[in-house]
């Protein structure tokens, strides 16, 4: 077991970690009292004394911060410390939240202090994932018009590992600055660079691998696909492994990660099968809790609730009890797989916005998507919630599954229908289409697995 300064945190006892977190709480309360515009106002209005919040227990009295609170005036969440050292003041970079729920990307500011911390945490993650200086990391995250965490993070991991790095640079084209590559070019680059590690969004990586198969490329050096940016089901994981083996890789595996801008890192799996769940790589920097969003009360381990993040050692954007929108289950037990002591998310995160009303009941399409995403013989698919006659609001709800497949239509129809009956108890209409009609990797960053046409119509 490694226990140098980078990783020693994982081998401290639970009590020692709590002591460090309490220290972090006191540090951030003092900094917020000095110069956090939003919390100074909010604590003042609610009559909370910063100095009375001394432990993670006390933190339960601090009101939750919603995405909405943060979006109104993101600059009010940046510490203003006029007399502090330059290291803690200078804005080193900024990223934007993806804004999937709200559609509005929100800036998240990192000072030099925060960026150094991010690199240190990246080093921890890189070690947990087992990156080495012999690796060649192919970053397949796309270039986007607002800077997102994922595109930059692959570079951080390479940097702190001393690994080589290549960016395939697909993404949003700009006619004036023609720098982006096609996904076919990206597939070829992975071969040319002799990449050993692929970094990317699962649905994009899967398409890249499909393309590599069609192009008869040689990926025998690839040993690992590190994915984040959307949920990666067991089926999708197996599909990626199957395709990598087909491309010559001997014993590949998928490392699934759950990242978000507000921690500028990922919660990460520790083993090949993901048995230990998503580990918080920095319990000394981020306090994670699961809460009831109405009361702010903490929910016990093993029960689902809303994830809230509290920063313990930041100087740029600082958030306390910030609701990411994800519904998760936490565990504080020692990881049965790796023995590390840290908070783990032990469920597949999902959002309330994923639930939808269909045929009079609230359904969660996630199990259906999970089942379809690993089904062999399916190249792409899309679950479409619509009406028999979309133009008529009184027309009955109708479930359609769009499928791209080169296999027998009868067989695919039977299997897809079975999966729908098992997961959402509905018989779908199966529509066969070309895979680019569902997802064109040169136009989008990830596939849209669920479409609710009824909603689009309401929005008008
Ligand atoms: Zn573990």
Please describe what this structure looks like:
By secondary structure, this protein is an alpha/beta fold. It folds into three domains: 8-116 and 276-352, ANL, N-terminal domain (Rossmann fold, 3-Layer(aba) Sandwich); 130-268, Rossmann fold; 355-459, GMP Synthetase, Chain A, domain 3 (2-Layer Sandwich). It has helices at residues 14-35, 37-46, 67-72, 86-89, 112-129, 149-161, 183-192, 202-214, 234-246, 366-373, 409-423, 435-438, 453-459; strands spanning 91-96, 107-111, 136-139, 164-167, 197-200, 224-227, 253-260, 265-268, 278-279, 286-291, 305-311, 322-328, 330-331, 344-345, 350-351, 356-358, 361-363, 380-387, 397-404, 429-432, 450-452. Strands 4-3-5-6-7-8 form a six-stranded mixed sheet. A four-stranded antiparallel sheet has the order 10-11-12-15. Strands 20-19-18-21 form a four-stranded mixed sheet. Helix 8 (202-214) links the parallel strand 5 and strand 6 (224-227). The chain is globular, with a radius of gyration of 23 Å. The termini are far apart. The site of zinc ion has 7 residues, from loops.
Concise account of the structure shown:
The chain is 31% helix and 21% strand.
Structural class: alpha/beta
Overall CATH class of the largest domain: Alpha Beta
In the CATH scheme, what's the topology name of the largest domain? Rossmann fold
Spatial separation of the terminal alpha carbons: 58 Å
In the CATH classification, which architecture of the largest domain applies? 3-Layer(aba) Sandwich
Calculate the mean pLDDT score and round it.
92
Tally of separate domains: 3
Note poorly predicted spans: none
Discrete helix count: 13
Say which CATH homologous superfamily of the largest domain is assigned. ANL, N-terminal domain
The unique ligands bound to this protein are: zinc ion
